[in-house]
Structure formats: C-alpha cells, structure tokens
What does this fold into?
Amino acid sequence: MDKLTDYQQYRQATADAKAKGWKVSNCFFLPAAVKEKISAGVLYTMALPEGLLLLEDGGGFYRVYYYLAPEALPAPVALDRPAVAEFPFRDSLTPAQLQQVQQLNALGFTLGRESSMMSVPSEALTAMDIDCSTVVSAQRSDLPQVQAMLEASFDPLYAFLPDEKALSAAIGEGRVLVIRREGRVVGVLNSSVEKKRACIDHVAVADSCRGQRLGRVLVEAYHRKYRGQVTEFQHWVDIHNLPAVRLYLAFGYQFHIRKANEYIRIP
Amino acid sequence: MRQKILELLEDIRPDVEFEKETKLIDDSILDSFDIISIVGEFNDAFDIEINVDDLEPYNFNTVDAMEELIRKLQDED
It folds into this structure.
C-alpha cells in the first residue's frame, strides 16, 4: 500500500489504470476533492494483479475505490481493517453493474446496506401540526454532546460522520438542530443546503427518548426552517430502516430513482 | 443534443437552473454523486465513455462545456 503525496501521483496511477484497460470503476473524484484528501494524507493506492484500489483512510476503516479489468474476477484483497465500497446506480442494476458486484464479491466484499434517495418538492411537503418549540439551533457548547450522539447512533462505515471541525462549522452556520432536556442533548438533526436543495445528513435520538416521536418533531422543525428557501428536500435512507422510511413517506417524500449499495469487507 | 442534456440534468437536479449557471462545479452546486449520475446518464444517452481524465471542472461548469465534451467524445469514437 502506497500513500499518495501529490496530485500527479494520483493522475499517473489512474492514467496507468486506464491505459491497462482497467475501466470498471466507482471512482468519480473531482480534482479538488482528490487534492484535499492528498493534503490530508488519507489517500493510498494498492496494486492488484488486474486492477488498482484507491483507499481513503476513514479513521478505523477504509473507503475503497477501484479500477478493475472488465470481466476479471480478482482474488480476495487483504486489508487490515474494515472497508466499504460505495456503488451508486439508478433504478436497478444493469448487467454490467451486476458484473461489478460479482467482482466486488470476488474481492471479498458483501452487501452491507441498500440505500435510496427520497425527495419531495417543497410545495408537496406534508406539514405536520406538531409542537416544535423544543427544537433549537445547536450552540457551540453542544458540540461534544452532538458529536457523541452521532458517533453512538451511526456506523462510521456508512454514515459519513462529520469530524469535529466540520461539525463545528455546521453548528456555526445554524445547520444543526437539537432538542435538549435538563441541559442534555437528546435529539440531533444535522442538515446541509446547496442551492435550492436541503438534505438531512443525520437524525439521531437518545435511546432513553425513543418512542416519543422526537424524530418527527426534528424533521418537521427542519422543514419549517428551510421551506421558504429551497425548492426540494431530500434524504438518503437505508431502505430496510422501515421506521425511517415510514417517517419520510408521511412527510410526502417519495423514493427517487437514485440508489446506492454499500459493500463491506470485515477482516 | 442540448435539449437532451438539459432534460437529463434537470431530472438529476430539478432545483438547479442549469442554463443560468456558469460554475456548477467551482461553486459546488453539483456534488460528487451528481457527477456520478451525470456521467452515467451521458454515457448511456450519447453512447460515449467519460473517464477520469474528463472529470475536470471546466468540462462540467456549464451546459455548453458538457455539450462540447460530449461532442468531442463522440468524434473520438
């Protein structure tokens, strides 16, 4: 495994992969994203007999991006920590994509999670007549509790958890909503807005407060916050997380054609 | 071709006014997943192969640039 230390190394590695016909890939990094990861020292390459892996150190696990020879079934890859390979697609898997899945299986990856985008235009959103007065914007002093709740609630393999710096920025920008009880954060909703689209990044409720509809209250508060600013709300959901799916359907969300499977490898 | 490009883009991001934008990538209007979707749709719709060398902001910042990329790749085939 070789650490990438400059952008030209990345360009050379991927150009070599292309020249060898290794064009089956899940890697669509834009240059700015690659440069940022290289600067952070988190990007590595791993040569395979008929392919190349790009490994992003996620802290305790790798995110895997591959360049593989079409039709080739690679040997299982040896990695010293858990790894996840994201596989986006639209609607349903094509024969070529099914071949890629087979290649991932050969590398030692199995299906970990199936996700779908759900979305709703602002004008089609179902507003709920519920009391959201307990929902407030997180303050900087909430950062440790918010971070702890996200880390306790989500598997980092799948969740794209923000680091402290990113979470602090989100709080500073008013994108994190919380519910507090007796000074303790018991509910969190972390969001992002791009152009006219708002997305929920994470929703979490403390175990002690489950079953009290706090998730519904947080999501309604989030809708009220952004409804006048955006034309669309969207969210990625684990399609087997039925309570979450039902919640978003109740708000008027519908399944989008965009899907993503995550294939994982546990040593 | 331009109309087809716009249809595909608007299906992926109905909230973006593509004809008006000049920095779709530079201003982070399109995220990496949007790019994945766009590449997949363009490859299928126009029978081309967009690869990593083409994933530069100047190829995706405007609809004009995307159209130019598609025409270039079609001419290469």
About this structure: Chain A is about 30% helix and 35% strand. The helical segments of chain A are 7-19, 31-39, 95-107, 143-153, 156-159, 164-172, 214-226, 242-250.
